[in-house]
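Model the whole thing, not chain by chain.
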Amino acid sequence: MASKQSPAKKPSAKQAGILATIELLKRYYPDAYCALNYTNPFELLVATILSAQCTDERVNMVTPALFKKYPTPKAMAKAPVESLEELIRSTGFYKNKAKNLKACATTLVEKHHGEVPQSLEALVELGGVGRKTANVVLGNAFNIPSGIVVDTHVTRLANRLGWVKTDNAVMIERQLSKLVPVEDWIMLPHWLISHGRAVCKARKPACSHCFLEETCPKKGV
DNA sequence: CTCCCGATAT
DNA sequence: ATATCAGGAG
């Protein structure tokens, strides 16, 4: 099974630079992983919905009790929305999220036999699930490289590194998809997010000890 | 574009 | 006080 290397053309200088940077990230964060705790696709779906504008650490504080009380779509679909609100309140946006969780679980029961669907179109139709959440579930729970997850960290780093010049998530995903080989689609966000949390932070980036400082156009910020 | 919104760091 | 956190919907 020869790994298909160059598509047809030689990569541009820009793409070659990006691919080189990705190799560095891969080497630097070999153990990058999804920071949300889950034991099945449904739990990852719920955790990712809760992770909107909230740290993964905070989500991981509320999900054990949530999953204990409502372990399946069937159980969560029948949950009083006030009960869900109470369990997830500390993650913020709790009224929207509680309503979304109940609607999402209800749809899973009614249209998907209580299982998490494995297509982007079906996932996005669930309450509170957008393209980012859908790609997280497909990539991490099912190992399907449906698309590249574009979150706040990927948006920030892709711009700082000069890979893209837009904050539009759909455009970023489209552009990155053309630059990055599909075998890296699932891990790339993990590498970028690891680096975004540890070094290339939103508020106070630690450029002085960043291993990408040489080639980063934002060097010094 | 605005709104949803609590917890934490600076 | 303000910015930010693995966003999504109207």
